[in-house]
Amino acid sequence: MQKLTRxxxxxxxxxxxxxxxxxxxxxxxxxQGNLVTEGMAEQLRPGMSRRQVVDLxxxxxxxxxxxxxxxxxxxxxxxxxxxxxxxxxxxxxxGGRVVEIEREGDFSTAPPLGDERGIGPDRxxxxxxxxxxxxNLTPDRP
Length: 142
Prior knowledge:
Family: Belongs to the BamE family.
Function: Part of the outer membrane protein assembly complex, which is involved in assembly and insertion of beta-barrel proteins into the outer membrane.
GO molecular function: protein-macromolecule adaptor activity
Subcellular location: Cell outer membrane
Pfam family, one: BamE
Number of helices: 4
């Protein structure tokens, strides 16, 4: 009986520890914020209106709550098995026009947007479905 108790205890301990295995955990990159590229940042100029900035960059991620003259465009990529990449552009307005542009982070490389396959169905399978004739989908009529 004592041997059976040891076996059951050991089995339960191993079962509980196996649930904490590192090898079974899936992690993925987590991008957040406004996607800001080098090309977009290069087109920003002092004197641009708010409308021109929104047309170029999109809506800002943050508007300073106590100073409506400041807009922040922040992009943050938390890599699953790596570090954190952050880019930030802060625009300061005076009278509805950009007066100051502050850049923070490395804009020289494009941020990764996903793997080669992308999200969703396989592209090759989707292309095969589009090329299939529709004649074989209608029932035969006598």
